Amino acid sequence: MRLMRAILFLCLVVLPVFAQTSDSMKFDISAVDKSVDRCTDFYQYACGGWLRHNPVPSDRPYWAVFQQMRELNDQRVRRILESAAASSEDKSPEERKIGDYFASCMDEKTIEVKALEQLRPELNRIAALERRDDLAREVAHLHQLGSDAGFAMGADQQLGDASEIVAYLDQSQLNLPEPGYYTSGEADSVKARAGYHAHVERIFALLGQSPEQATRSADDVLRIETALAAASLSPLERRDRKAWYHEMSLAQLTELAPAFPWKAYFDGIDFQPTGILNVAVPGYMQVVNRLLQTTTMPAWKNYLQWELVRVVTPALPEKFRQAEFAFYSSSLRGVKQQDSRTRQCDDLTNRDLGEAIGKRYVELYFPAETRQRVLEMVSRLRTALEQDFQEISWMTPGTRKEARQKLDLLRAMIGYPDHWRDYSSLTVKRGDALGNALRAQEFEFHRQINKIGRPVDRGEFYELVQGVEGYHDNPINVIVFTAGILQPPFFDPDMDDAINFGLAGGVIGHELTHAFDDKGHLFDGEGNMRNWWTMEDGKDYEQRAACFVKQYSQYTAVDDIKVNGELTLGENIADNGGLQLAYKAFESRPQGDAGKIGGFTPEQRFFLGWAQWRCMNETEKTARVLARTDPHSPGRWRVNGVVSNMPGFAAAYQCKTGDPMVNRQPCRLW
Fold first, then answer.
1. What are the angstrom distances between the C-alpha of 134 and each of 10, 223, 286, 606?
2. Which candidate, 352, 304, 309, 345, places its Cα nearest to that of 327?
3. Is residue 357 in some structural domain?
4. Residue 307 belongs to some domain of the structure
5. Structural domain count, the chain
6. Which end of the chain has fewer surrounding CB within 10 Å, N or C?
7. CATH number of the domain to which 144 belongs
8. What does pTM read for this prediction?
9. Cβ contact 476:496 at 8 Å
10. Cα 70 to chain centroid, rounded
């Protein structure tokens, strides 16, 4: 879930699922569509009113309840940014930085006047490349500016010793959604490649190339990226953490890819590797090596200039941003209208000064009482999971003991990190949007590189504090929920337990189960990569997991595309296990609140809480992209797929064997 914005227009007369007050959202149970049979399609029953009255806005690829929540948080962040930008008086150094950064981004007049003036030296630098050493130094330079041209470089936890950070070289993220877009003969991929080629041509034309030159440049870019894509792991393959972890020394890396001038590259980023490197995908680096030998320098120059423009587009004149929108949002995802400049600058400031903004967000919007309430909920879910370990049949005694030990060591980080990021060395200047963006990216690159060889910081957040985010990190053995997500309606101190446990509890349970699933069992409680399952446990788990693969592979994602049961397996298991745990924790509450609210029992409201968090409309093009790239199932199946496996749901809504929402052979792991 990453900083995608949308306009929040809710009208009380349409009975929205989540009603908006002046600065909050509230769960509104009156939006249930009672014309739908709840035992036939619970998602439509729970979300029908919302789906009818919340079409995808023209500037969005999709629109969901959690997007509404993000929009509300964005409004709060915008007030922080606008206040900081209004005046530098009585502001802390960090507030002045975020204010100057945001103001510079919003100063479109200056951006248009400067045009490519600041970018031209960078383009000329690439144009002057002659030798492989020059090329390696330029790749190093672009990496510091936020690109992953050729490959990605960063810091990663040493999986055999989770206390240390090592250097990390990985495949590039590429510029189409996933590697198959470059190599597949499917109609969607062929069309996307043609559109991408035209887009790259358009950018080179904006840089001043003739139509013939621009076509040749786009050819070069596609040729290089297609070769890289063919060597890249797919999203499904990357589910296996071991598939992209390969320890090597510098000497072994040099032997693997001898044509690449590694000394020039590492000199360029001011880093000298002396210990272990994680060369994530060795075969990919061999292709980089081959490309260096077989691709002409002019072609490399075109590729690197394109990578540069991709990085800096948000701070370039409008014609570049409009071209970016036309392909990536309109053509690829079906979005009709470009984001406002304010939203673009919200995103950019969040990207580069996110923790400075988050610190202020916590002060204004995250009371200590909320944090304590959530920690209490986590405690109840822990107890439910520990009980589950005793009850499930597929864990052998030794594995059950290891699981309890890992659960004991698992840490919950709620709201904000242990310490805030220090931005004092980052220079921000008013009127210098492009310079600010480049300096911020360089600051972040070296912040990451400086971690190498040092102990792991287990108190750091990897998502924005003000974002609507929750995640589990196996190498640190931690679950994280940001201050931005721990707001109504996701967690509402004024709501009954049924809603809070069905919604927030189900998602917290989801993240907890990730510590013990097909990926979690590869990491022990300290975060070291160590398989603590027996072979017998592994076989039993795989048999049960196959049930989920079969179940979800039968669901339609969009039109003629089915849900990829293998790609979505981990998230489907976590959805099912998380809600099972939340229900167990909820049912353990002291009795006495069994009365109905809004005509629904506590158990019924529990399942409505889970379902209505998944209400979502999307463009057809976006649905097709997500079906190929997203490890989560579509919202409809994240609801119906889960509740149809739960006897508690059938009991709550009096569904019978044979109803679509009651699986004859329910899938169950937790």
1. 55, 21, 20, 61
2. 309
3. no
4. yes
5. 1
6. N
7. 1.10.1380.10
8. 0.92
9. no
10. 14
